[in-house]
Specification:
homohexamer; about 300 residues; six-stranded mixed beta sheet; three-stranded mixed beta sheet; 13 helices; about 15% strand; globular; disordered N terminus; ClpP/crotonase-like_dom_sf (chains A, B, C, D, E, F); Delta(3,5)-Delta(2,4)-dienoyl-CoA isomerase, mitochondrial (chains A, B, C, D, E, F); Enoyl-CoA_hydra_C (chains A, B, C, D, E, F); peroxisome (chains A, B, C, D, E, F)
């Protein structure tokens, strides 16, 4: 899977070059960062990329543009050797209201095709495309920290369960909304949520009733690992956390992400074998020597100059 | 697995017709509902089926009749298009004391056969039959909410871990009892409990020592998602929860259950592929349009008339 | 896997005989138990084996000797029919400071071989050898309770996640340290930690930032199932817990461990099938009859004389 | 899977009793054996059951009755301890013309349900039911030898790939017909054929073009293991082969079938582990001693009186 | 996997539009078809696309351009609803001499990166990219027939094992060449060849010695399903075969390919479940009715006008 | 699995040193090579190790000593960097008569233990130990060519299916004997034979009837890849084949074996991912450059001096 993604990046590298440069030049602004219309990308600190859902006037609802921009954005980040960690958050009053049904209705409600089989065939393609929008987060080898404030509804839950670390504010709430609009959630929630939190009873209850879950329950069930008083505090915390990750060896950090995901989907003996095969070369990095030396000299990892990856 | 079950239902449909009609006509009563001797089946609300373990004088201990009646009961429910959600609870003072050793001893303690191999062969059949008693709960596509009060011992834990949502009263306690009678739990607890709660250390401790776990620990570890003050409050809560589920599109609800179970047993990429293949037709349901319209008109799902499934 | 291990034990049985006898004769002492230089092995109670990490002056850092002694020690224990449960703890001020980088640097920092491929080949062998050091704990069919006080760093987390039940003191803390020395943890933590606790967000945070986790968070996330005020109380608690396990049928207890591990790595239907095939013979044990009889006579399992296994 | 099946058999044992007795009393006749209308069941030799597709005037086309009678028939055989091996063949001029489209059209061409989702839901049930018709052959622990003469079309290929040993006459031909009627074969051929023969290119060609394959190619690609000059010779050969199998220990024979099927669907290490767990009890059979003794006394297995299984 | 690919196609649809149109307009010519420099794409018959490796002066050696053009070409074909089947062959004297080492040496022999870990990281990306070149053939839902004449060396074997049906001429030979240049074949041969032919001993011999295999052995081991006297006869045969496939319902044909590939990588019960979920909608196609009607009217599938897919 | 093995080798290295030296000093002789009593080990050519089953007077029947000597022998070979390929054959008139029932009867016929559970427990250990005897062949990364003359019975088939390449003489025959002595073959045949040859019908027939298969059928079904007129010709052929393998880069050859085995037990996408992770370091070997250069200079691989592995 990871292999596939990487080749995908490679084969179109020339096509990406222009926008790729654009990304590196981005600065935090009040609106979306071209060529994106729904995302704002900035670099708040060294080696940290901040991706902000940016349709605040629409409560960051996920429209057609969003679904493809996410893929482009994370494909670029995956290849950007300047970036070591990503923070995702939402602009405006809430994280996201989920799918923008008005904009997407054509795809979801009016499948194309001459008969049921052909409509199903096309529908399957569309679903697979939407699944990819969040799977790119997992395939990007850089860790992704997501910071949620206010509402995180429907597609928002699909998005955050594909991220690596989840933070939220006191006023945040989460809702697996799909059952309310007559469908089984099909872009990741049903697949990832049960592997993200430890109570199966709660997962089932959330998915079958679409009830809201507030920040305290999200913390106690393990959906988020930290709750902050407000958005400002959370963003500061997210950046500090991102800074900690960015300071460490990218060989260690990205190898850790790849192997944690591998472990989720394989047995322990298989995952140990994969790990040994992974590290047989990765341990030959200079980063081990540099890190060990820094440790002996009581230096912080932040003082160690690791090569790019 | 699911496919197998369904075919099982279909092929004997004619045989079931009589008892099937009986089920639909059942009313809540003070005793078991014929043709069952250990279960009482009723319909406390529209589209909600209530299955009550009903041998209160024997602390709902699981005798020979129980093991086969559960299969018959849930096989009927799976096919009953009037039913959209199931509530399971226990009559009398406790949920269940577990296996009725006196009644079952013949099966467990006196295996049939001319030599060890043949006794083992027959024993394997018996175990598989007993495993099926709880697997039918999972194979039934309608969500099953279980409400536990008082003791839930041995086979009771096997039963509740096969249900979708677990509730309990303040005075409830749970005990993986099998190790105390010299055997490894073989009808589901060792297989499902680790996938139901998030602490492996706790799972092992419970299964290896047979110690009791009380409601507060059951809540904090995620075995149950809610604790109620007493049985009356719990049953009200269970019915309200069941009502919420029953009000939603059965296409959405039952597709959610089937895909959540699929996700438990497969990798994320495999589960996403299955989900897309599932929804390529299921999204063509009228329920999406009806639900979307209701949402826009600020109506509750309960006001939407979904077709039977 | 289990099969492989067992054959490993068997084929060299004669080689082990001498040290094996030594183990049975061990008494609790102030230092390591010969032939071990880093472990102290004793028998604090009937059927209970206590393995103590014993390099207190070096904070129980894991040196070359440790990595192979653990394999020898647990291989013996696996075959020792007198032993029914194991307790692991650390001598001195802390549980363990993790890998002894000074002693191990040769293996990790100076891979052997004429080119990158050959160095990688040898590195893979070394990693696999180290992985085995903790996998033996899992392959040993007797349950292993680990009791942690003070620090549990790096390799210590790899070790405890391979144990069955985790306890700790109020002052204990845990640190997935590897990312700080430039590498992805490769001897078990990334493979087992996500299957041991219920919050994926927390697992990722710990592994990617190397931050310390204290006992209260370890308890609430399910890493440990109990926290004790101090080491003395914990050791008493660990021995009591071990006593509970040791009192029960070894056929039941060891079958439970083997099937719980099988369940972790397989789907529910596969695990049910394996369980039925396991118990088709194991239920024919005398222990079921003895236990059932004791239960009826209101005797404690501790009064039942089970045969050795 | 196997476990599920067995429990299925067990739970309805009382229902089967009457027809079960009927089966044992069956004699070879010129027509179907009651209560079957499409199958003729007989006992041509000790411990050998012969199941004949018996609608010769309809070229043994598979009508509604056939699909459910096969399940009943093999469910009984699975429980019949007198039977140790099964031979399947077709009455009349050919083995089978496949599905009886006229009789089945209602199921396949007119799915029930109020919308696409509900029609799909019901269609899935129907397909699963039909899949079960051939899966019962695999779940029956007694080996099944199939003898094909003349045409074996469509559903016929689904049927024979679920059998254990395939024989045919010189004039036999095989056709994966489904693509010709606008559908992907969904009751077993696409799942089992690639695991039955060794040339993937041939499998694809047959399934994508619906071309006929004659007996010589069927032999060289390994679909059948023997070709006979005519039906009479083949039936004699099939019965001789069945006699060889029936003469051997049923513990050995049925354990072999179950483990060969397990191996098909699992990795080698997993299958070895399952095998060891299976044989830990099965090797304690008296059949090993009896067989070993017979071997030493140069007796044929046919002279050894094995207990029933 | 399939889901991923499809989404890949979708998300860049606008980028492809120009070249896509180009493809439809292509005619058979003496050279590569723009925008390709190594492939010639034509439409020899209705619904049949012919992809010719076209660097005859270089023995169709696979240079940098080839590896990415294959991905573009098959991505377009996958989306081209006019195309129902693909034929692949080689221009000039042989099918292909395999990788063009001169052109590719930079990628393979000079990995980029500051240390071994970084060079390995980049090398993994490169390998994954090359693997994708042949995986696109599998992900394209239209069946791919490959016709081999003369030599098929190294990368050529990787290519043909990813195709669905393999044909060759009398003078064809095959060579798994990689071991001769010091590496384990890493773009598909070691993964697919064992699942393509039935003799493991032969697979190992070919891969470990790099010996040539000629057409007769290729036929008898099942690598190819037909051998033709010369290239002209083979191309005629390939087109006839392609015509047979193109004439049938694309819903049936492409569903067959997708499910045959699914079966290769899953157990039989899993593949049956997937198949039922697939066909629950696909059987609702008009193609079944059209095909059934044609069959009853004794018409050839070629006379049935199926809608595009 | 591979990881486990390697660690096994490592941890006892000091114990092996003496016998290990012995192995390197071995010369071909008329009897077993100390410290072995059933095996003769020699070095007929550079980098080629010849292991001969050497109890000709007992038809190379597998006695207690054999089962453990095989493990020791292949464990040494796995670590012997002088060895690049292994040839296995049998001394005397036949390859092997299989298990030496007289010598082994104690293990198989008289299980130890106080009750059925304990006897089963010990039996499982014994089976697992015996399985390991042949699994070591697979875990040894050097390819193993086996050359069979005369009879290859029972355990012999278990042995050869764990080898990589199979050769035989015209007079060779093979027999899956276990069913004749009342048991399901449990040390590898049922697990590996179906993945070694392409006809499932034949596998089942052989395993269920214990009939002999002669060399011509063994060749046509793919069990062996070549048949020789007599033993002398076969041994010459085997050594030539071994020489071809030994001449090639050990990095390429051993990586090929490891990945071919991985592919057998995993899906294609998983195996491709593992392969990319394997080769990301292995391609950095000097062997690629040396081999490429030799190829350009038209030199044979035999002239290239590869470093040891």
């Amino acid at each position: 899977m990871a292999a596939l993604l990487r080749s995908m990046f490679m084969k179109n590298r020339s096509l990406w070059q222009p926008s790729f440069c654009a990304v590196r030049a981005m600065s935090t602004s009040g609106g979306p960062t071209p060529p994106f219309s729904t995302l704002s990308v900035s670099h708040p600190a060294s080696a940290v990329t901040h991706v902000e859902l940016h349709r605040p006037e629409k409560r960051n609802a996920m429209n057609r543009a969003f679904w493809s921009e996410m893929v482009d954005c994370f494909s670029q980040i995956a290849l950007d050797s300047e970036c070591r960690v990503v923070v995702v958050s939402g602009a405006g009053k809430i994280f996201t209201a989920g799918i923008d049904l008005m904009d997407m209705a054509g795809d979801v409600l009016q499948p194309q095709g001459d008969d049921v089989a052909r409509m199903s065939w096309n529908m399957r393609r569309v679903i697979a495309k939407y699944q990819e929008t969040f799977s790119v987060i997992e395939k990007c080898p850089k860790p992704v920290v997501v910071a949620v404030h206010g509402a995180c509804v429907g597609g928002g839950v699909d998005l955050i369960t594909a991220c690596d670390i989840r933070l939220c504010t006191q006023d945040a709430w989460f809702q697996v909304k799909e059952v309310d609009i007559g469908l089984a959630a099909d872009v990741g929630t049903l697949q990832r949520l049960p592997k993200v939190i430890g109570s199966r009873s709660l997962v089932n209850e959330l998915a079958l009733t679409a009830r809201k879950m507030y920040s305290d329950e999200a913390k106690s069930c393990g959906l988020v690992s930290r709750v902050f008083s407000d958005k400002e505090a959370m963003m500061a915390g997210a950046l500090e956390l991102a800074g900690e990750i960015a300071a460490r060896s990218p060989v260690a950090v990205q190898g850790t992400k790849i192997n944690l995901l591998y472990s989720r989907d394989h047995s322990v003996p298989e995952a140990l074998d994969y790990m040994a095969t992974w590290n047989m070369s990765m341990l030959q990095t200079q980063d081990v020597v540099k890190s060990a030396q820094a440790a002996m000299e009581k230096k912080s990892p932040k003082e160690v100059p690791f090569s790019k990856l």
